[in-house]
Amino acid sequence: MSHKKTPRIDPLTLALPPVGVDSHAHLAGKEFDADREEVLARAAACGIAHIGNIFLEPAAFAEQKRLFDAHPEVFFVLGIHPCEGQTCDKTALETMRQAFAAEPRLKAVGEIGLDFYWDDCPKELQYQAFQQQLDLARELQKPVVIHCREAENETLALLEAQGFAGHPLLWHCFGGAPALARRIIRNGWHISIPGPVSYPANAALREAVALIPDDRLLLETDCPYLSPLPWRGKRNEPAFTVFTVRHMADARGVSPEALWRQCGDNARRFFGLADGA
């Protein structure tokens, strides 16, 4: 018995106005070495005006930011990932401080947080790195982008205990239920939605998407990971946000174009991006 394959729809057939923002991408990775320019061109053709490229440690930023010299639409986010928390020492923090002072395209500290799924870094070192980088974000007066995996209660407890409610904060790659979304919202923070909102099993995530206030919602790929349908299992890229936003719009009962504009406006405000930059 044969099974029908989901047809692979060209994202260009669903292009939206040129105001979209992919708030979280990893375009410096080797997965894009063969066709990075084509990927960026496809994103623009699909309506992406800005892309946030995430650098997971200072050395990567220093080595790879040149990849985007010809692409002012790409802005930068820099932090030490929790799985690399053991590298967050005084030298690394000072290097980050100097990078933010020198590079106006650096808009936020992240992705930082806690990750108890992987066993790459002891929890105590993750906590220490998280706290140090929260302090750095406060010092620099920069927004924070949170990475949290299987550590939701611990992450929220630390942030709330540190009085981070109301500080500009984006919960990256949200995959939780309505209760988690409500707690994030109560603290005045933003939530970014990735491709898995399109997966049939993720009804609770779609319920959460439906209740997030209009001005707190962002859109992301986390590419090359987490492709939305109909490209699940393939390399993700910023152009695929045109699929993700349609599933989000269905959950919220609005048009994809209206939500595209809203999420783009929210990202520009959160990261301090100029409309034409």
Main β-sheet description: 8 strands, parallel
Q: What number of domains?
A: 1
Average pLDDT metric: 96
What percent of residues are in strands?
15-25%
Portion of residues within helices: 25-40%
Q: Characterize the overall form.
A: globular
Radius of gyration: 18 Å
Number of helices: 9
CATH superfamily: Metal-dependent hydrolases
- Gross CATH architecture: Alpha-Beta Barrel
Query: How many beta-strand segments?
Result: 8
Structural class: alpha/beta
| Spatial order of strands in the largest sheet | 1-2-3-4-5-6-7-8
Instruction: Point out poorly predicted stretches.
Output: none
Describe this structure as you would to a colleague:
The chain is an alpha/beta fold and 277 residues long. The protein has one domain (20-271): TIM Barrel (Alpha-Beta Barrel), CATH 3.20.20.140. It has helices at 36-46, 58-64, 90-102, 123-140, 152-161, 178-186, 203-211, 241-252, 256-271, and strands at 20-25, 48-55, 74-78, 106-115, 144-149, 169-171, 190-193, 217-219. Strands 1-2-3-4-5-6-7-8 form an eight-stranded parallel sheet.
